[in-house]
């Protein structure tokens, strides 16, 4: 069984698929037992065909396909449910996350405490446009003030978390943006780890500042409600 399952959701990323798969293999092969689980969210280009062609070259690669487009959070959850590793590393499919940071997150986990179930990437030197960086900074400030999750960057796609802890979280669309707060709500600790960030290699972003903001308002209210309504207690077996 693999130690690590690398889950990558993709939608219309055909030109980024092979370079990213090659980088994942270069970062992990010979260092960790791993698998790569790509989830194609019903791409309209030939991303799925590219992935199927790579399977003969990369034995660690598994490919899942949504029969209808369902969004990034659902694609991540699909990959995690199918994963065989006890720990999951996630990457965005656009190539902006650096797979070379996965061993760094694993090392942080190995040196960390058992109560930490999520190691979240922190893009300290973002390579996005100025407007996107400003919007992200503003959104992070509001989120941090409302949820008090002590996380500087929840939007970074590269994360390492325990599979069982993730699957125990409440599922909803866009939940991948709130994993630190949700993990903390469940009673676990989270750690932010500085990681590399790169310009998009090819293709176009699937989000813009406006649709992020409109969706984010409803999501923030929902997550805040979940936190307020949560109850936790220790359990003794007698």
TrEMBL record:
CDD domains: DPM_DPG-synthase_like (cd04179). Keywords: Cell membrane, Glycosyltransferase, Lipopolysaccharide biosynthesis, Membrane, Transferase, Transmembrane, Transmembrane helix. It comes from the Bacteria. Signal peptide: none annotated. Residues 5-166 form the Glycosyltransferase 2-like domain. Gene3D superfamilies: Spore Coat Polysaccharide Biosynthesis Protein SpsA, Chain A. The keyword Flavoprotein does not apply. Transmembrane segments: none annotated. It comes from Tahibacter soli. InterPro entries: Glyco_trans_2-like (IPR001173), Glycosyltransferase_2 (IPR050256), Nucleotide-diphossugar_trans (IPR029044). The keyword Nucleus does not apply. GO terms for biological process: lipopolysaccharide biosynthetic process. This is Glycosyltransferase family 2 protein. One of its GO terms (cellular component) is plasma membrane. It holds the Pfam family Glycos_transf_2. One of its GO terms (molecular function) is undecaprenyl-phosphate 4-deoxy-4-formamido-L-arabinose transferase activity.
């Amino acid at each position: 069984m693999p130690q690590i399952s690398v889950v990558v959701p993709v939608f219309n990323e055909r030109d980024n698929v092979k370079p990213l798969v090659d980088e994942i293999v270069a970062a992990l092969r010979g260092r960790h037992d791993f698998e790569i689980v790509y989830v194609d969210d019903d791409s309209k280009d030939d991303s799925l065909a590219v992935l199927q062609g790579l399977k003969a070259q990369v034995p660690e690669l598994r490919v899942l396909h949504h029969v209808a487009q369902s969004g990034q959070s659902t694609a991540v959850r699909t990959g995690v449910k199918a994963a065989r590793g006890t720990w999951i590393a996630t990457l965005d499919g656009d190539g902006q996350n650096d797979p070379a940071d996965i061993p760094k997150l694993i090392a942080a986990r190995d040196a960390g405490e058992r109560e930490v179930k999520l190691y979240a990437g922190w893009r300290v030197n973002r390579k996005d446009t100025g407007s996107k960086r400003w919007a992200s900074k503003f959104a992070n400030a509001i989120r941090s003030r409302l949820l008090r999750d002590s996380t500087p960057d929840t939007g970074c796609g590269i994360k390492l978390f325990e599979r069982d802890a993730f699957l125990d979280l409440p599922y909803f669309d866009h939940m991948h943006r709130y994993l630190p707060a949700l993990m903390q709500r469940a009673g676990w600790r989270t750690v932010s780890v500085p990681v590399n960030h790169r310009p998009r290699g090819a293709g176009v972003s699937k989000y813009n500042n406006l649709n992020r903001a409109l969706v984010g308002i409803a999501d923030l209210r929902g997550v805040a409600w979940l936190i307020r309504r949560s109850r936790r207690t220790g359990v003794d077996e007698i």
